[in-house]
Amino acid sequence: MQSTDIQALNEQIYIDSAFVETLNAETAKVIVGQNHMIERLLLGLLTKGHILLEGLPGLAKTLAINTLASAVDARFSRIQFTPDLLPADIVGTMIYNPAENDFSVRKGPIFANFILADEINRAPAKVQSALLEAMQERQVTIGGTTFPMQEPFLVLATQNPIEQEGTYPLPEAQTDRFMLKVNIDYPTKEEEREIIRRNLSEGGFTKIKPVVSPKEILQARKSVRKVYMDEKIEQYILDIVFATREPKAHGVPDLEFLINYGGSPRASINLALASKAYAFLQRRGYVIPEDVRSVCHDVLRHRLGLTYEAEAENITQTDIVNKVLNAVEVP
Question: CA distances (Å), 104 to each of 107, 112, 194, in order?
């Protein structure tokens, strides 16, 4: 692209992304801190990606996605995953109507714009598969009739990292369908002081007003795709992903005995797409290496398999990604 074209695109993206500041300001009325989580929710929203969130109880996971749904003027649905849950409890089923002597479709809670799949690893594999099929195909079949999901459609699935008894961990092939895996931590002392004050205030939480329409989100998705990505950035993304598959050939031979399997082609696609969306959130019409590095951990951490040697040495996926980023040459 010519410099004049990039400048024109940059100006257009700056206009198209104007709603981001308004949306952040509105969610900040309820959510204290957790900027990383809110930013990742927006990345998923702008790229048709879904998010796997891992964090301890009480860190505002439900509140965050509920607040975002209110600010976008969209339907929110929370599904509590339990061991006795059935696929029909999520997608819906056929109900017999004696008065009409016929069956009618009763849609499940999956038919909303924002879905919170709370503690997804508490439910058996067939229930997890029902949700993941809706995420991937963006449609659900009930009684021979196919129903498309209403856009925007975003699934936020949560996992509790401290309770593993009686859980059904997501298989690697299914976690790969999530665009991002986000780890969230405790708020700072100052943030928690503000949380206490807001919860104890007489008026309670501020009521969130819709500041963005679903139509604007769908338009923003088109703008994200237009964000310019240079060939050097594409090569940088490929080098990062291939370094997880062939560490020795990419200057990190010490990782060869720590990585069982590297990032799939979905890793490359999602890293490129998330980088474009991150640039869009920065109100910029082109991708820079820092955009790639900013989203790299969340895109890759659930796509890397560790060997027994790595686990024995307490090496995490985050450590692996750090070593890869330090080794791969930045364009």
Answer: 10, 19, 49
Spatial CB neighbours of 247, under 8 Å, sequence gap ≥ 6: 253, 254, 255, 256, 259, 324
Contact 76, 112 (CB under 8 A): yes
Helix (H) or strand (E) holding 97: strand 92-97
pTM of the model: 0.86
The Cα-based distances of 75 to 62, 69, 189 in angstroms read: 14, 6, 33
Residues 26-48: pLDDT tens digits? 888 888 777 888 888 889 989 98
What confidence tens digit (pLDDT) does each residue in 126-149 have?
A: 888 888 888 888 888 887 788 888
* Preceding omega of 124 cis (within 30 degrees of 0): no
Are the C-beta atoms of 80 and 87 separated by less than 8 Å? no
What is the third-level CATH fold of 229-327?
Helicase, Ruva Protein; domain 3 (1.10.8)
CA angle 41, 45, 124 (to 5 degrees): 70
Determine the pLDDT at residue 300.
92
In 10 A of CB 174, how many CB atoms? 18
Q: Which residue has the tokens 């206009």?
A: 15
Query: Distance between CA 130 and CA 145 in Å, rounded?
Result: 16
Token pair of 25, please? Answer: 């300001």
What gap in Å lies between CA 208 and CA 18, rounded to an integer? 19
- So where are the chain's domains? 18-215, 229-327
CA distance 273 to 49: 9
Residues 260 and 306: beta-carbon distance below 8 Å: yes
Count of beta carbons in the 10 Å neighbourhood of residue 5: 11
- Give the separation between CA 11 and CA 104, rounded to whole angstroms: 51
The fold of the 18-215 domain, in CATH, is Rossmann fold (3.40.50)
